[in-house]
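Regression check, magnesium ion case 528:
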Amino acid sequence: MEGEDEDHEFLFNTSADQSFNKHERVIIHIDIDCFYAQVEMILNPSLRGKPLGIKQKNIVVTCNYEARALGVEKLMTIKSALEKCPSLILANGEDLKKYREMSEKIYQVLQSYSLFVEKLGFDENFIDVTHKVVKCPEVPQVITGHTFQDSDGICACGCTERLAQGSFIAQKMRDRLRDELGITSCAGIAFNKLLAKLIGTTHKPNQQTTLLSTSSLSLIKSLKHPRNIPGIGSAINRKLEALGIDTIEKLQSAEIFKLTEALGAKIANQIQQLSFGIDNSHVKITDRPKSIGAEDGFTPIRSEVEVQKKLTCLLDRVLELVEKDGRKPSQLKLTVRKLHPSSHSVRESRQTTIEYATETGSSTHQGPGGEKQKVKLMTTLKNLFEKIIDCDVSWQVTLLGISFSGFPSSNSASPVKNSINKYFHLKASSSRSEEPQPPAKRGRFDESVLQELPPDIRQEVLQDMQNQLPSSDAQKPTDFNCPKGIDPLVFYELPMEIREELLAEERMKKQTIKRKPNNLLQYFRKAS
Ligand code: DCP
Ligand code: MG
Ligand code: MG
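Current build output:
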């Protein structure tokens, strides 16, 4: 069970880059509907349409929307849930493996839209799509899904149009999650993370809501109590209550020195800004650890039996962590600290490739598959130990460590680095070549990479690319290389050849060369 009452004060770091004070960004927050229950219904479709609760110990951690309609609530005791709904079916949710696997698949789908995806728990993700939003006057300005707007005022900075495009992208992401994984979700679209998370919960399930920036204060005020602001958990709330602060308005008008006295300057500032809906924190790309392991230090041991005991305990601990992580390692490393007769210590490690089975029958490696795997891994560890220690002469060991690594590269490497490397690789290979290459092979218009970069880096890269092109090149890359009259979001979905054709037609028009009208171009103009 996840801690329901945790303080997430560092989640929304309001003191970050102040240049984000305007409404420049487009942030999408996606939260999966009744997550554990949906996973169970996918695995066992006969549960669909029936009230279903997921139990951990004596708590119903979540339930599907059929059960909610009958009065069951998240985090109810099983006893009260069954009182509310005697027909409630209960599924055991203590093995988290299947939820973790689905969570990973969701993350992968979202990352195919934007590299800037931050995972929050199992079923939530923030996605920054600012760089996907195309500055083009022809883009439809209609918001997809619900709109939260409590006044007629419209901000003049262009954020409404940007958010409208964000809502279109959010709909596409949710459609893909539904079509590819069979998962429904809710999305919130706003100009910062805090507001995106809050607005997404206003229409549930399987819906999305966009917050217009002029209505952000009223959304925050509608929360009424500070404890309802994500980031303000029970510990902070207790301190606020002690200061008599029990409404959002009181937090907004609280004297900062009083807040600072009780909470420290950093948190005081952060939570006061949150109470105004201000959150300048970035979407941090979720990166996974490159290795998972544990070490144990002890008074000297001298026998192989003792080493085996220690390693068995360590392996159990580490396997549980690997299991929780959900990825499959391909390397196993053993670290040993040897105590020399002169009483100085030396650490030494040895690593080897392993075959790691993910289907072991249980998340804690207790099943028969898990036992077999443990025996194999223990043999490998023993071999590694014998490479470090010569067991024929006396020895003493004061530390043992086990670590797994070599996880699939798509998860362990930073996607941003990959993209930039990909770009520079393209550039390097094109500059090495003496022969002129056809445009498509030169990588000069690799939007899949360009579109993923933050606007400032992208601009720099584009400029750099332009400088490298021979002046005879008819079609230099521009940031918004989209023919007039076509929805750029539709345009960038098209196959490269069709885009090239449309762009060629556009260039022809510009050069006022007489030519038969292009049917393809006409079609997309009509469609948008
Ligand atoms: N969870 C848990 N313990 C908690 C809270 C949640 O184990 N204290 C698990 C069960 C949920 C999952 O995390 O399925 C996601 O939590 P949510 O709060 O997003 O709840 P749901 O996704 O179940 O429902 P909703 O449709 O309201 O988002
Ligand atoms: Mg959820
Ligand atoms: Mg959630």
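Comparison notes: The radius of gyration is 28 Å. Residues 31-32, 35, 123 surround magnesium ion (ligand 2) (CB under 6 Å). No diff flagged against the previous build.
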